Fold each of these.
Amino acid sequence: MIDTVLFYAFALLVLGGGLATITLRNAVHCAIALIVSLLGVAGLYLLQQAEFLFAVQIVLYVGGIMLLFLFVIMLVNLDQAARERQFNRQWVVAVTAVAVVAAEIGYFLWRGKAAFHIAENALSPASALGNTEQIADSLFSEYLLPFEIASLLLLVAVVGSVVMAKKRI
Amino acid sequence: MQPVSTIHYLVLSAALLLIGTVGVLTRRNIVIILMSIELILNAVNINLIAFSHALHQVTGQVFAIFVITDAVAEAAVGLGILIALFRNRETLQADEIDLLKW
């Protein structure tokens, strides 16, 4: 019961924050709405016993990425942009296309509803290890190569962003 | 009220994905377009975690970590490009950057 109430509360945060992000005029308000949405997603992780990702979501997304966004908003002067038109000319086409995709996804979810009731006995038993330990086990054994490639990607991103933001390229 | 199952999370994830797509396609401000991309990536993560929980497997969470890594890299490079662009063109409206269009 409490799970259901919490799910709907977090879902409201996620969707309300998302809608505010794409409709508000001031970029700082958009960033704050996005933080609300990301915190809602973090709550959903906690509801599904993904404690490690809950911590990562808060530390990395809310603490790291959103800080970066706010810094950039501070660096580039957006006062003039806030007074201009906010949506481009193709918005009718865009919303129509997204509505078609929404109908498609909704139809498939409705038709395939039964497929998501997974039989309990077909599952591997829940492990006795903690969530973080399980992730570490999987990440450092099965997914070691993707892990190393991800670290390379981050290195490239760091160098790339420094080069991009330099005064004289 | 029926108990929350995987399908609830999938519907929520689809809704967030569509909100993000509308943001990417309709907004003019590039900063907000990048924020909408973050919304889309979060929708993917909700999906992965929902299946990870339903199947008692931790693989979905490992994938979510990779998605978050990509999101960080994308935000860093994207915002770096944005600063370089603002320095050269003095604008952040996506439809005013049309040097390669005719």
Amino acid sequence: MRNAILSLRRAPFALFCLALFLLIVVAALLAPWIAPQDPYDNAVVDFFDSNLPPGSPAGMGGLTYWLGTDALGRDLWSAILYGLRITLTVAATASVLALVIGVLAGLVSAYAGGWVDAVIMRLVDILLGFPTILVALTIMALAGAGTGNLILALVVAQWPYYARTARSAALVEIGQDYIEAARCLELPHWRIILHHLLPNSISPIMVVLTLQLAHAVAIEASLSFLGLGTSIERPSLGLLIANGSREILSGHTWALIYPGLALAMLIFTVNVFGDRIRRALNPQEA
Amino acid sequence: MLSVENLVTSIAAKGTPVVRGVSFDVQPGQILGVVGESGSGKSMMAYSLIDLLPRGIAIAGGRVTFDGQDLTAMPVAQLRRLRGDRIAMIFQDPMVALNPVLTIGEQMIEAVLAHRRVSRQAARARCVEVLARVGIPSPEERMGAYPHEFSGGMRQRVVIAIAFLNDPALIVADEATTALDVTIQSQIIAEIQSLAAETGTAILWITHDLSLLSGFADHVMVMYAGQVVETAPAERIFAAPRHPYTAALMEAVPVPGRTRLANLPGVPPALDALPKGCAFAPRCPRVQPLCREQAPPVIQGARCHFPLEVTP
Amino acid sequence: MSVLELTEIRRVFSRHDGALDRAMNRVGLGRKPQHLVAVDDVSLTLQQGEMLGIVGESGCGKSTLGRIAAQLLPASGGTVRWQGQPIADMAPRDARAARRAIQMVFQNPYASLNPAMSVAQTILEAPLAHGLIRRRDSAAFLAQMLDKVGLAPDLADRRPHALSGGQRQRVGIARALAVSPEVVIFDEAVAALDVSVQAQILNLLVDLKAQGGFASMFISHDLNVVRFISDRIAILYLGRLVEIADRDTIFARAHHPYTRALLAEAPQLGGAKRRFTALKGELPSPLNPPSGCHFHPRCPHATDLCRSTRPALRDVGAGHRSACHYDLPQVAPQTQGA
């Protein structure tokens, strides 16, 4: 893993994407401080400023809408920053939860073998057999909209990827003598799994994390776009795009283009960076 | 027949030598054993002779003369013709030399036809004869088998049969029996011995196993840190080693009656950080101040300032 | 007194024997399961403080036997007794204690250490996890273990990749000894090492053996190494025990023709130049072993009895047992070069 990160030095474009990604993350985290307007505060948002093109001054003065406003009169730039924050929070929380659950399931599956392995892996196969978006949609349909359910849907849809990767990485390690030695020392099973298997299986899992994070952002946006995600008062990036798409026939293209651009940039940078790490870890594939 | 003069091979990028000035001669029918631990440069020395060095490592000096021709100056195409014909090779892993998707027969016939103007039938007959010779039962049938249908020992015997095919003048074998069981190893060595005796093929036998050479080689060369530290007829070197490293290696081998083995402290030096003076000095039990200062001369076959006395 | 006793241990590996294969078999569609008898009714006892050498060629089942003895692999049949009591019948607590008292040192010093753990973590993990030492005593304990296996104290924080092969093998030995085992199983523990490093480790084992405290099984393909280190020697061939005796008895009066062949073929340092006289034939496949005595196709003395009937392991002298039907005359000790 350390080598993989070092090898980024020799990949200026991947490094640039990493920097851009980090910039997006920081901007999203700092949204309340750097956004010109709090798009959730009805006292600040002026309904009469709805659908203004980029560069328009605010009707009440004191503010320029550099990216225009949406149908509710919110400053689009601020809404994007806040939306990014929601999208990233949801995607990151879901990815971390999916990683923890998936990796544990994968390691236990590989270590225990037998029927435990069979049950866990058949479940994984079934979930992987359906398109991720369909799994997530089903969960949302059953549980209803809302941020918590959105995270739940992402976790259910994504843990199988981590489980499968963790299992195959762990199976390689289980063949090594140091695992035999640990068993011979009668170390508790949880200890062998957490102290011996986990640290040595982590590299490919980190690759999956970067790729699945991008995927989670995309799914979150898709679900929100379909109206199954976050609430309308606090729109995520996906919902902004959905709202923007309704304005497109009225000629208010900016409401769709800018949030879309932000989403594309986020997914693209994570993917380039993740792909680079994957290739660094599997030199024969490069 | 094969003559190597002051061969130097280095890692091209860094200039780190892996073979540092090796010279020796092999006569027809002679079995020359080369022994050394990992990192001694014994394999790199052999690969230098037959132009099979890994990428990034190249000959940096010296001459390799085979049948009067300088191999280091020879065009690659000509050298390739020589390989597999006059010079054959055997490696530790037989699958390196065998193509898994061709039958043994196809590979062997091809090896004959590549170097000889004979009919296919004649080539086939030659293959069957050689397979029988290395102890493959029912060779006629086995010609149609694929490499994976043979056991490890059988596979190595096929490789040796391929090496024998064109009556080479020289066989270079690198740890050829290391992965084999002791009873199989004996069989293969018996074949090699009779080949050398009957056809006058010279053998360069590279191994880490001193005991194996003691019943087998005519002449022994001991390598350490890229250099030959001692070279002598087998009987002499096993009866009375002169170089302290040779002596220590021999005392490190468990033999009946021994209750304690030589404790050579430490590990061989890294080739990019060789000590000044004698490369073995840091581990030598007989080290003197001079050894740490000056590279030792070769005295009576031993590269040592203070070689062990030979007791008559 | 015997610490570890293996009785009629048998281990069969099967291919095409999963749940699906069995179901398919039931409806008559399955492939025939292939069975490999890796260990075939082997009985051995390990006495307190002794080192028992286990010798054999590839496929003889020596590593499988070692793993069964170390409780890393279940036997398909037979009993493993710890201090007289079958481990399988013990209460879980006692069985764990027994298993912990049997430790193993592995062949490959690169694969046998966790690459993510330092030397100190590797050695201290088990004693701390089992409460054998207290955390505040761990530094002193670590120093003592490092000293015991001849490792410099400043190596404690190194990861395996920064150690030489010999140093790694010492760490592997220290890890096993750290839980105060009563039996240590060395599985080809010096096979992957250079000659001079192998000598260092063998010397260390001689010293550790002299300090006492554990009995051991030393599994190896190298007769010279086993001769150097062992008190008694067992010879395996294709999963069966063919001969067992004191070290000196094996080398002076080998009874079984296979043992004799092995002795004749093992390279000897200092022997004069000789013609290698090969044992005829290949090592048969363990998937399809010969009938009767497994050795008969290669044995110069084989008879019809050998082809049809498995010879029992029988007493041929004090503590010397051999699985040959005949008492073949001893040839004069082989003088090399003759």
